[in-house]
Amino acid sequence: MILRVEHGGVTLDDLDDLKRLSAHVEDDGALGEWGRREAGHVVLTTHQLLRLAGARAGDSQWRSRFDGMVDYARRHGWIDGDEVRMHIVGE
Prior knowledge:
single chain; globular
């Protein structure tokens, strides 16, 4: 998945690619209530990612794969509590 932070707001792209999670930031101000920028990363909660995923979050197969991605990220230290740290690419 790719988190896009652009002038129009925050969106998720490539929802079926649950083997990566990165952020493209065009407009820091668009993060607003969604999260924060921190040392080359964007930080949001898993709840916020699910909210951005919209109807896909209700698909049990997709949700199972999402939960697997979250478990993997947690094991590698990219999740603290419920906060997910996503590397900003393209800087």
